[in-house]
From TrEMBL:
GO molecular function term, any single one: acetyl-CoA C-myristoyltransferase activity
GO cellular component, one term: mitochondrion
Organism expressing this protein natively: Gulo gulo
Record flagged with keyword Chaperone: no
Catalytic activity: butanoyl-CoA + acetyl-CoA = 3-oxohexanoyl-CoA + CoA; an acyl-CoA + acetyl-CoA = a 3-oxoacyl-CoA + CoA; tetradecanoyl-CoA + acetyl-CoA = 3-oxohexadecanoyl-CoA + CoA; dodecanoyl-CoA + acetyl-CoA = 3-oxotetradecanoyl-CoA + CoA
Cited InterPro entries: Thiolase, Thiolase-like, Thiolase_acyl_enz_int_AS, Thiolase_C, Thiolase_N
BP GO annotations: fatty acid beta-oxidation
Protein name as annotated: Trifunctional enzyme subunit beta, mitochondrial
Gene3D superfamilies, A to Z: 3.40.47.10
Length: 298
């Protein structure tokens, strides 16, 4: 329903079907591949798929007791019934229910999982800081060279227009080294500097078959050849998706690592992506956890 409202607000016809996909961090990718499926099955010719992240205004619910009272007040028919319900109100009813960010089956946040994963693969604090600094430095260079010009300016009510990614923050190893662990204290290695920050953002893409795009006069910017979704142990391998997915999608497409010039992996935490690199480069991990004879390699 939310995406339907967004579509109507964007000027799409009320005859255009739309739906919302909710699948945590992979929601936008799921929306994209769902669109591919609709096109491949002949249900749609053209699909707009996208994702939205709104971390500055997350839904915070009333407590269960407060919600129950509000619903009962809505059903009350007489003034006496309403006054009787109101008399039961207590100040602790106003205590809010903060949104759950922990993984359901482990009660750990992604930051905790990343910290444990980095420790399991012997990824040091310095390794993480160096990789994070590299990422921010390369992003700043790309931004300065105009390579991120596809960012659409957005006017935030009451504030200045956001014209570029404001999450790029090159620093120094000295400054990064001063930060304390953010999740596992006091000995953890994941900090605010080597983690992705929480922010707002959105992206969208126009998807169609190549022949449809050419018929409409569009020049395709990218092709989706194949895709795969994986799942693994949420306690110890929650953030190892790239390690499991990469060889599977390559094998499906009849490709090898040597056929790919550049990979794009989600870097939620530098410790997470470095742990994936180590897992991919391990024959032992491939044989004991992935059912492969040799490592993925990267």
């Amino acid at each position: 329903m939310c995406f339907l409202k967004a579509a109507l607000g964007a000027g799409f016809s009320d005859k255009t079907p739309a739906h919302t996909v909710t699948m945590a961090c992979i929601s936008a990718n799921q929306a994209m591949t769902t669109g591919i499926g609709l096109i491949a099955s002949g249900q749609s010719d053209v699909v707009v798929a996208g994702g939205v992240e709104l971390m500055s205004d997350v839904p915070i619910r009333h407590s269960r007791k407060m919600r129950k009272m509000m619903l009962e007040l809505n059903k009350a028919k007489t003034l006496g019934q309403r006054l009787s319900l109101i008399s039961k109100f207590r100040l602790n009813f106003l205590s809010p229910e903060l949104p759950a960010v922990a993984e359901f089956s482990t009660s750990e946040t992604m930051g905790h999982s990343a910290d444990r994963l980095a420790a399991a693969f012997a990824v040091s604090r310095l390794d993480q800081d160096e990789y994070a600094l590299r990422s921010h430095s390369l992003a700043k260079k790309a931004q300065d060279e105009g390579l991120l010009s596809d960012v659409v300016p957005f006017k935030v009510p009451g504030r200045e227009t956001v014209t570029k990614d404001n999450g790029i923050r090159p620093s120094s190893l000295e400054q990064m080294g001063k930060l304390k662990p953010a999740f596992i204290k006091p000995y953890g290695t994941v900090t605010a500097a080597n983690s992705s920050f929480l922010t707002d953002g959105a992206s969208a893409m126009l998807i169609m078959a190549e022949e449809k795009a050419l018929a409409l006069g569009y020049k395709p910017k990218a092709y989706l050849r194949d895709f795969v979704y994986v799942s693994q142990d949420p306690k110890d391998q929650l953030l190892l998706g790239p390690t499991y997915a990469t060889p599977k999608v390559l094998e499906k497409a009849g490709l090898t690592m040597n056929d790919i010039d550049a990979f794009e992996f989600h870097e939620a935490f530098s410790g997470q992506i470095l742990a994936n690199f180590k897992a991919m480069d391990s024959d032992w991990f491939a044989q004991n956890y992935m059912g492969r004879k040799t490592k993925v390699s990267i």
